[in-house]
């Protein structure tokens, strides 16, 4: 999302999220975020236009998503700050009590093969809670991530210091591919996001049809899977709005590619991202980058 919004949140809110009651700090962040989008109306319009473009029109569903998407964008920032700035025991207790998990048997079966696991997710839902959930349940977690500010990166580094969790951060100077392959060779769970468009090698000759249009297609996941021999699973964490306090989440682990030599990991991961995004588009938050993902204009579809 916007570097302006990201830097604003990561500069103003860490101390508030660390000390204030959860609901209070979240509500204040949401209120300030609403003011931000009101003042930065071009950014808001861009996001709304991209919602309509992805959903194929301006029907009732698109209008509903446009109403809800900004709240989810801000919830994402709240979750990021919560994980980075609350003490580790608090975060572990939070995810233990608040996140309902399904399908972790698939992750256990993949881990049993002894070649590490590619845990593939996207910029969707409460993605920031996935590494703490896996860490709290005893999985050796390595996470590929970026931080817009030095303050956030330092907070995350303090969080994992002295634990078995590992961070892989390109802007820190980490040799990402080398560290990824090393983590998998040591039998770790590598958490990565399939829709990290800034890292894609975008070529007109490499595309895939998703959301009724042609998107650029990056093969990095295929290279990692085949080089490491690691199986891949999909992991997504949704926000459950139906619960009264709002701090309830559902994490699902889904079979992706048990044998990386027999299937296309990148294609399978992108199609899983497509499915989750079509089911709950308001929970995706890479809307400003949508058009840079496209290799050609969308195929016209009925309004949705």
The helix fraction, in percent, is 40-55%
How many strands, what sense, and barrel or not for the largest sheet? 7 strands, mixed
Amino-to-carboxy terminus distance:
24 Å
Sequence of strands across the biggest β-sheet? 1-9-8-2-5-3-4
Q: Count of helices?
A: 13
The residue ranges in which pLDDT falls below 50 over 5 or more consecutive positions are none
Record keyword descriptors for this entry:
globular; 7-stranded mixed β-sheet; alpha/beta; 304 residues; 9 strands
How would you describe the overall organization of this protein?
With 304 residues, this protein is of the alpha/beta class. The protein has one domain. It contains 13 helices and 9 strands. The chain has a 7-stranded mixed beta sheet with strand order 1-9-8-2-5-3-4, sandwiched between helices. It has a two-stranded antiparallel ribbon with strand order 6-7. It is globular and about 50 Å long. The mean pLDDT is 92.
């Amino acid at each position: 999302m916007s570097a302006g919004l990201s830097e604003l949140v990561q500069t103003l809110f860490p101390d508030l999220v660390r000390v204030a009651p959860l609901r209070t700090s979240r509500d204040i962040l949401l209120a300030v975020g609403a003011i931000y989008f009101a003042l930065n109306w071009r950014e808001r319009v861009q996001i709304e236009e991209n919602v309509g473009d992805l959903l194929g029109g301006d029907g009732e569903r698109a209008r509903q998503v446009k109403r809800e998407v900004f709240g989810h964008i801000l919830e994402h920032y709240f979750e990021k700050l919560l994980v980075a700035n609350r003490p580790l025991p608090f975060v572990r207790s939070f995810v233990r009590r608040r996140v309902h998990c399904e399908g972790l048997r698939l992750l256990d079966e993949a881990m049993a093969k002894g070649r590490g696991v590619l845990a593939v997710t996207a910029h969707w839902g409460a993605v920031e809670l996935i590494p703490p959930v896996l860490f709290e349940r005893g999985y050796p977690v390595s996470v590929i991530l970026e931080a817009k500010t030095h303050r956030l990166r330092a907070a995350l580094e303090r969080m994992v210091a002295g634990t078995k969790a590992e961070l892989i951060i390109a802007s820190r100077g980490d040799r990402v591919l080398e560290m990824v392959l090393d983590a998998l060779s040591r039998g770790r769970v590598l958490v990565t996001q399939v829709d990290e468009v800034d890292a894609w090698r975008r070529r007109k000759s490499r595309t895939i049809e998703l959301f009724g249009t042609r998107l650029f297609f990056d093969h990095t996941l295929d290279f990692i899977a085949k080089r490491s021999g690691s199986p891949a699973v999909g992991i997504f964490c949704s926000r459950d709005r139906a619960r009264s306090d709002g701090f309830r989440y559902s994490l699902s682990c889904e079979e992706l590619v048990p044998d990386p030599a027999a299937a296309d990991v990148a294609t399978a991961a992108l199609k899983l991202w497509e499915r989750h995004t079509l089911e709950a588009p308001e929970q995706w938050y890479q809307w400003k980058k949508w058009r840079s993902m496209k290799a050609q204009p969308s195929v016209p579809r009925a309004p949705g």
